[in-house]
Amino acid sequence: MTSKPLYVYLQRPDTGDWVTVGRYKLDGESEIGRFRYAPSYEAAGHAWTIDPVNLPYLPGRDWEARRYRGLHDVLRDACPDAWGKMLLQRQHNLPADAHDSRYLALAGNVDRWGALAVGPSATPSVAALSSPRLPMLEALSRELIALFERRPALDARLRQRLVATPSLGGARPKTTIQDADRYWLVKPFLPTDAADIPLLEHVAQQWGRACGLNFAETVHHALGDGLSVVRVLRFDRLGKRRFMAVSGASLLQTEYPFIGPEESARWSYPRLAEELKRIGAPLADRVELFDRMVFNAVAGNDDDHPRNHAAMYHAQENRWRLAPAFDVVPNPVEAPRALTMQLSMGRFDISREAALADAIRFGFKTLDEASAHLDALLDRIGAGFTRVEGLLSPELRDLLQPRLQDNLALLR
Ligand SMILES: Nc1ncnc2c1ncn2[C@@H]1O[C@H](COP(=O)(O)OP(=O)(O)OP(=O)(O)O)[C@@H](O)[C@H]1O
Ligand SMILES: [Mg+2]
């Protein structure tokens, strides 16, 4: 019971042309997937690896996938998560246990993450549909909320557009908007939100930037009737160009969302740092990851799961690098005591000891060096907060201000 092949296309990092990079097949019985780099890809002398950990470029070899019931990690990265899956289920009447490869094929390539696309034919065909433009932000956001609440369409064309572009990951309703040659992820406030999450996300991203960290650019929009929307600059798009990306889950060779207690043993910042080193990212990226870990600890962002980290391919540098930080959202309800990823071996707790125990694995030469780095970083995070706190609502300030003091004390 082998499925029909699904061809995988890649937008070449050098010329921007689409090429067929390989072929995926699922054996439905054993739930083992097989991917093979295409002979034509090899013949043309291409050698870009689409997943530097799990699918090294080795022509002629069948790479088996067992995670995700037989879908290769980087293909899973190109699938929707809860939000997009829900849209596709409604649209195509999919059973609850539909295989991820169905979502991969049905989601369409228009908004897909990274530089991969898929299709049924051996020659690449990737429709170049333009995205809605910035002036549509408010109408699209209202339509997203209506869709989320299962209300009838406010604007049939926008509804159709949203339903036709469900490919991006994550649980929250989202869409992509274009402004000149830049693309932004649009995430509106939801009636079920316990706090103004879009504002909180915007402030957290700005806070990270104010500390000198590589956090994705964001803009916040406060619109009428309490509508709050954050837009986040997509690092995997520029003009017509798409950039290869892999999630932290793929780099860590773990499944996310969670499927069993053994998985979280693999969710670890120091391990992710080692994987970054293994795939050729520079030391600066490992230190940046350490800094993000500490930032998440201070801000109480315990939604720091493996799919909220990523690496991207830099064509000019010809290497994989840590992607900008995204989806950094302090817990809006309570101050967490632990993160979702281990700060050091077996330790999820927010504490100085946990933050420093495995510092060497991030590339620090000595514990003293790491300690001094941590102290300077905590100063920067504290100072960064004072630069952005004016953006917060009084409620959010009451949430974050005491947490900042408490967590700085735990880490000093
Ligand atoms: N700035 C960005 N540039 C490129 N891709 C991004 C960016 N931000 C997010 N993504 C991609 O979109 C996915 C969903 O985005 P995001 O994590 O912000 O959504 P979410 O619904 O809040 O997620 P979660 O389920 O973790 O709460 C991410 O997993 C990542 O693959
Ligand atoms: Mg996310």
UniProtKB/TrEMBL annotation:
Residues 167-365 form the HipA-like C-terminal domain. It comes from Noviherbaspirillum humi. This is Serine/threonine-protein kinase HipA. One of its GO terms (cellular component) is cytosol. InterPro entries: HipA-like_C (IPR012893), HipA_Ser/Thr_kinase (IPR052028). One of its GO terms (molecular function) is protein serine/threonine kinase activity. Keywords: Kinase, Transferase. Belongs to the HipA Ser/Thr kinase family. It comes from the Bacteria. Gene3D superfamilies: 1.10.1070.20.
